[in-house]
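Dihydroxy-acid dehydratase
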Amino acid sequence: MPPAFNYPDDSLFSLDQHLGGGDVAASVITSASGPSGQLPLTDEILRSWSSGDLFGLTQNAGMGWDPARMMGPQYLCLSTQGGVRDHDGTPIALGYHTGHWEVGLLVQAAAEQFSEAGGVPFAAFCSDPCDGRSQGTNGMFDSLPYRNDAAIVMRRLIRSLPRRRGVLGVATCDKGLPAMMLAVCGTKHLPSVIVPGGVTLPPTVGEDAGKVQTIGARYSQGEISLEQAGLEGCRACGSPGGGCQFLGTAATSQVVAEAMGLTVPHAALAPSGQPIWLDIARQSARSLMALDARGLTLADIVTDDSIYNAMLVHAACGGSTNLLLHIPAVAQAAGLKSPTVEDWHQVNKLVARFVDVLPNGPVGHPTVRLFLAGGVPEIMWHLRELGLLRGDAMTVAGASWNEILDAWPQSARRDALRQRLIESDRVDPDDVIIPPATAKKRGLTSTVCFPQGNLCPEGSVIKSTSIDPSVVGEDGVYRKAGPARVFVSERDAIAAIKGNHPHPVQAGDVVVLIGRGPLGSGMEETYQITSALKFLPWGKHVALVTDARFSGVSTGACIGHVGPEALAGGPIGRVQDGDQVEVVVDRIGLHGSVNLVGTADKSLTPAEAEALLASRSPHPQLAVDAKMPDDSRLWAALQQVGGGTWSGCVYDVEKIIATLDAGTKALQEKASD
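Predicted structure tokens:
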């Protein structure tokens, strides 16, 4: 155990000291002369501007802005900055994660660009939590709900600067970047540009930030020593800023934002803190001013075609399944048709994965190598060559993807970065972003499959390519049948996997984790479980079925987003310990099923299984988690009315109002009876 911290005596609060301090009190100043000069007002301004607009100028002067430069166009730099850094980068107060630790530097670079051009930059911040930090804790109950809340706050911040001409959204990670996309797409009458916050570097020697999250499980099972756990845990983040080194939800969100046209070309996954990263912020500021000058807004950029392109790139990368929640939500915010499960299925049938990046194999390169290999433009160039890309979709660069991709293969940027990857890491760029025909020969297949069955009649999702190949049949089909181990809390499930449980999970089991969907826990991530199973020798022989969701770095036979969730009456809530559960996933045909096929005593026909599930009561311990905050319970209720998980956990205002009106009327009628 680490030693207890002993506070120095002179640092403790002293009432006498606080109420004394006569010298400090005597130094208080009661008035000041105020800024010199005068506001550049005109007769027309004074007669037509609101008092708020005029008082805003007064406050600008009060903060020290030169009155002579007051009338330039206003641009809002909205970011998820977290923590407080000293001038040399050392921490004064920590952020929640590395992803938002350095983004203030991007805001500064962009603001300087606006200022140099005669604009008036503003900066506002809405920091974000870390899914990695909250794994296995009650903090996870606020993770997905935060996205909707932050998007609301960000939109309020945008609207609360009445004279802004455009928005530069700087964000990086799992919920902050999706929230930023929702915010700017929800104010699509404005020009806006997203600046992805980039990625952290992998350590020269050591584990990546995904694997290192398993040190507790591996130590508990005797796989690593205490000393090794401490060493790996310390050095996994090779640099202080940026999202994780794997294509989890944070990195996938960056890639998707660029594919939608929301960023300047080749912006996703740049190494945080480096000159090329800062240059992206400056280019983004120039792009925003150009959009403003041309009268272009996000309504001209975020279209059905841009949503489709984002889905193509997601499939090509084998991206995080959390984007199945976020892309529909972005579409809804932009007033577009949200993709359905069938839309996702069709895209994944069209596009087999051809990007080799963590956590996917066969090698699993860190995200900075994906950037160096050409990033999103390189992926989209291949997609265009396949005849799949909707290349007329516009981007915030003021050019279509066709125009960008016509220039990309011969660009100095592409040549220099791909050569840098060869020289620095001895890696062929075409082994990271693999030409699709070559990827097919190497056995890479489509990524996402949507199993259905008597335990998930509305569907579920699995990243089928993440299943360990050694447990997949020669025909490309994963088949698993085993006894159910039912848990109603992640804490109990991980204890059983670590062996800290009266009945530990064993090879051959099917872990069924219920009551962890939106209604039960805010739809927590369960990476603590999936990562442990990946790095334990017998973990590949265990399947996981849950109404919760997974981290983008999750791998293995893990099936999530089961619908209906248990607390919404889903049959998954009626599974009992010892029941025989069968999982089938066809990685080539992209079909799958999750079915109850027997009890502990006997096999069941499909009709018998359906009848048994219908006759059973829900699990006796199934309930909303007692520690779920009221804030998240409200979110869960509102998103359920809006269509729940398969609609992106959004707020459909019209449906919510109609439901409240109907409920109010019903209560009034009941009271009058």
